[in-house]
Structures are given as C-alpha cells and as structure tokens.
Amino acid sequence: MSRLIVVSNRVSAPKAQSGGAQGGLAVALTSALREHDGIWFGWSGDAGPGHELTFSTYDGVTSATLDLSEQDIEEYYDGYANRTLWPLFHYRLDLTEFEREFQGGYERVNAVFAEKIAPEIQEDDLIWVHDYHMIPLGWLLRQQGCRNRMGFFLHIPWPPTRLLVALPDHRRLVESLFAYDVIGFQTNEWLESFRHYVTHEMDAVLGPDGSVTIGSRTIRAIACPIGIDTGEFVEAANGKTAHDAYERMAESNIGRDLIVGVDRLDYSKGLPERFAGYERYLAKHPERKNKVYLLQIAPPSRTAVQTYRDIRQTLEGLTGRINGEFADIDWVPIRYVNRGFPRDVLAGIFRAARIGLVTPLRDGMNLVAKEYVAAQDPDNPGVLILSQFAGAAEQLTEALMINPYSPDSIADAIETALEMPLEERKERWRSLMDIVAYEDVFWWRQRFVDALMNQGQ
Predict the structure, then answer these.
(1) Mean per-residue pLDDT for 15-26?
(2) Across all residues in the chain, what is the average pLDDT?
(3) Where are the beta strands (DSSP E) in 76-204?
C-alpha cells in the first residue's frame, strides 16, 4: 500500500504535549496518515539557525519539521505568503505588497523544503501538498527527481485573472502547478477562475473530467469543498463541556437573543462590515433594544503584519462607538472578545446562539458556518446568516444569504432570523445538516485522494 506524504506550512499532527482537540483537517489527515503509514512535513513554527528535519512519532503519526531563519520567516511567511498572496487571492489588491525580497524568500524556502523532503520519499508514495505557502513545491520536487503522484489543494480562493495578472511572475507561479497531477479548489467558482486564467494566459486546452493540458502535460483540476468532522462536533455539542458553556451563556443572556460571530482577526472576514450591519439593525429596530446582543470572538493572528494590527484597532474603535451610542445601564449590544476558545466550548456557545453571523468579504470555505450548523439543537435550531462570498455559500444554500458590503442586507437578515417560525428554522437546518453531515472532512479527503490515485488511468 502506498504511503501518504502530507506537506503544509504548519504541521498539525498529534503531539504528546498537545492540549485540547485537533481541528477537523488535522483529524482527517492524521487518520489517513495512520492508515497509510505516512509522514507530515512542515515548518516547526520556530526560528532557528539550520534547516534540519526533526522527526517525531506520536499516536501512530510521524511528523517531520524544520526551523526557519528569521529572514525566512520575514520574507516567506510574513512577506510573500501573508502580504502578497493572501491579500491578492482574497481580492484585496489595495493591500497587496509586491517586494522582490518576499518572492525570493518564498522560492528559497520552498526549495529548502524540496531539498529536505525529496530524500525521504519512497517510489510509491502519494504526495499531497497544501495551500498557498507551497505552490511551487511540486515543481521543485520534480527537479529533485521525484516522479511520484502529487496533488495540491488550495484552501483559499483563486483570484480572477484580471487580479492575478497584477502579480509579478504570475505565469511562472501558475506554470509550477502543472508539476502536480491533481489540483483541488474549494468551490466551482475558484475552479472556473483557474480555468479562465490558464486558457486565456497560457492557451491551455480543457478536456473532459476536469483535465487541463498545456503542451505535453495534462493535469486534472477539481472542485472539492472541505468539510468538518461532523460526527465529532455533534458529539462535542452534546458533551459536558459544551453543556456547561451553553448553561453559562443562557444565564448570561437573561432571556436575550444571542448573535454569535467567531473569526480569526483578519480583514477578509468582514468584521467592520458586520459591526456596521448590526449597528444599522439597532438603529432600524429600537424595539429590540435590550433584547439582543452580538458576541464577537476574534482571536488575533499574524500580529507581525501591520494590516492585522490595523483591523484590531478599527474593531476596538467600532465596538466602543456602538456600545457608547446604544448601551444601557444593564445591557451592551456588543461583547467583543480577543481570544480563542476550545472547540467544545465553542460548540456550546453556537448552540446557545439564535443566529450564527458569518460575513466574510471573501473566504475559501469558512468552516465556522458548518460548525454552527452541526452544533444546533434539532428541536430548536438557530439560523445561519451567511455571506454570499463565502465558499460555503455554494453548499449551504438554505442559509439566509447576505451581501456583507450592505449594512441593510445584514440588518434585514437579522430581523428575518429573529422572526423566523420554528418550523421554518427546523426545515432550513435539516437541509443544511444533510450537507454538513454527508460532505464532511472525510468525504473531502477521500474524494481528493481517489482523484489523485486514479489520475491518468
């Protein structure tokens, strides 16, 4: 049986010292690594003078990590990955920084990964590379003599051609993807954007079953939406920790309706727009004063990047202004929390919330939307309000869809959700839950691996 080799920027394999539950992606990949006796390669997250691999095995999963230098981190991770590719791929050309040293660092670090990983690969291994940090890795592994089947999955959006061509050496980056045998995207929209680019900029020929040919090289490009570990999340939502969190929220709510948002602190998540929409709702519905509140959980991330520090300052200012205008002596309309919580605690918070408010301006998928659905009480489910620009919108069509740029769209959806009869809430939830349960993270993994194993046969 072929081994599975997973490569990503960071490694989420289980560790003896790890606390709390793994995320759904880690659960799916670690179970596959156990089944296939595989290895998970990635950056350790630490700065160090060398690039030597450190192997460890825990709970049947082997991981191999390497340190990066401070210069590597600045240019590859903080620079090209998060100040060039991330904003560009999320349609934020205004925030995209084009620096040659960023691109050089990105290519240098990918070359280091290829050099260190190639000697560890066996002839029959399946190689699965993940996300925008590692786009050229497959091509670099081919230069190291690797002839294995290789797949690449992009977890974030693929931008329209008119934006991607703003990237210096954009064609070179895309050409490197043709070293893979299968490329996976979260949605049909991102897949179509990729197909548009390669046909218009590279004269690619599209064939049946997702094939894309340039010259003598034919690959397969597919839409393969990632899911959550639905069974585990439902179990967590019914567990003691979630129950305690639910009771704590119920006691805190004092009969008020809870609207919850849970997002990494990032400009792509539409948090200022969400706050503006909620403010519009409060202004339009003064009768709801003291009867509803928004709990926004937003743990900070990428604090070395200035735009992330800016978004935090913006949200703190908006929270103060909205609370100052609308609060009463026994009620504040927004509770803004700048830290994360374990997933089983979040499951209890989701169940206590009448509305799950998910408003990204652009998102590859958005698993919070699926977790909110999975956490609901079937007898009294809440309502998911979802941005039409989230990848999850292709699947979760029974959510209340909104335009996150429109405060009125958000405000109207909040009122619709609060007024929605129980039977309609149940009907919408059942349709959403069917999708979340069937197209879970294990379905996603199997769909991609099957495509990789069958490509060219």
Answers:
(1) 56
(2) 94
(3) 126-130, 149-153, 182-185
* Alpha helices (H) along 205-305: 230-237, 240-253, 271-284
**C-alpha to C-alpha distance for 77 and 386, rounded to whole angstroms:** 30
| One-letter amino acid for residue 235 of the chain | E
Which 8-state DSSP code applies to residue 128? E
**CB 334, CB 244: distance < 8 Å:** no
Q: What is the pLDDT of residue 28?
A: 77
Of 36, 155, 170, 196, catalytic: 155
- In sign, the C-alpha dihedral spanning 421, 425, 426, 431 is positive
The one-letter code for the residue type at 423 is: E
CA 364, CA 27: separation in Å to the nearest integer?
A: 20
Please state the rounded mean pLDDT for residues 84-91. Answer: 98
Which residues, including other chains, have CB under 8 Å from residue 135's CB and lie 6 or more apart? 110, 152, 173, 176, 177
The answer to whether 299 and 339 are in contact (CB under 8 A) is yes
Question: Which residues fall within 8 angstroms of residue 173, CB to CB, at 6 or more apart?
Answer: 135, 136, 167
Rounded CA gap, 20 and 175, in Å? 40
Q: Which CATH number fits domain 4-227+441-454: 3.40.50.2000, 3.30.365.10, 3.40.50.720, 3.30.450.40?
A: 3.40.50.2000
Query: Which one from 72, 263, 363, 440 is the annotated catalytic residue?
Result: 363
At 242, give phi and psi (nearest 5°).
Answer: -65, -40
Whether 85 and 107 have beta carbons less than 8 Å apart is answered as: no
Question: Which residues are registered as beta bridge partners of 42?
Answer: 65
Beta strands in 80-189 (DSSP E): 126-130, 149-153, 182-185
53, two tokens:
């691999």
Does the fold of domain 230-437 match that of domain 4-227+441-454? yes
Do residues 277 and 417 lie in contact, with contact meaning Cβ atoms separated by under 8 Å?
Answer: no
State the average pLDDT over residues 207-212.
90
User: Is 200 a catalytic site residue?
Assistant: no
pTM value > 0.90:
yes
State which amino acid sits at residue 48. G
- Euclidean distance between CA atoms 379 and 165, whole angstroms: 50
| Burial of residue 272 (number of CB atoms within 10 Å: 0-12, 13-18, 19+) | middle
Give CATH for domain 230-437: 3.40.50.2000
**Span 263-273, average pLDDT:** 94
Tell me whether residue 155 is one of the annotated catalytic residues. Answer: yes
pLDDT above 50: residue 182: yes
Domain-wise residue ranges, the chain: 4-227+441-454, 230-437
